[in-house]
Input
Amino acid sequence: MIEKDTYKTITSSTKNVLFKDKNSKFFGYAFPVLNEIEVKTHLEAIKKEHHSARHWCYAYKIGTETVVFRANDDGEPSNSAGMPIYNQILSFDVTNVLIVVVRYFGGVKLGVSGLINAYKTTAQLTLDASTIVEKTINIEYLIKFDYKNMNTVMRIIKERHINIIHQKLEMDCQITISVRKKEAEGIFNVFNNLYEVAIKEA
Output
């Protein structure tokens, strides 16, 4: 079995996707996120923007191999909001994404099945409106070497079309590279076998 080294995520924020049901309004938002601090920042901004709303329900999924996720009903009946939103994240097979659905109560109760449908539909419409892209899972390596070995290292980087993220080129040189997961072991071995060149995961 070939290990998967790609994942899908959204490129930018999607805002104000509206779904209405029995006078209740549901506003959907999607944000690309890389950590829980970013999640908190977006949630605070939405609560400020929609300070008169009744509920700010959300779900997020972060990570590719080790996944962190959370589904929050924010006062709605248990599993009627957060999980339907999270299930849409799973259904679209995306990660590094936060979906928030803001509800303004319209005076008519929807019941649990109505709520599940409303939150699910809003999350679905929000993801439908988002630009979803496929990215590769990459591993970063730090390569250390003396300046005299620069040409050798740079030739391999050029031949293999390796992406340099950061470099410090002085008497002792350090280059951080990013390589696609399925090519990582091969590239690690190439540098590891070079005399006077050290490589390790960054």
The domain at 137-201 is CATH 3.30.70.240 (Alpha-Beta Plaits). The chain has a mean pLDDT of 95. The longest strand covers residues 24-32.
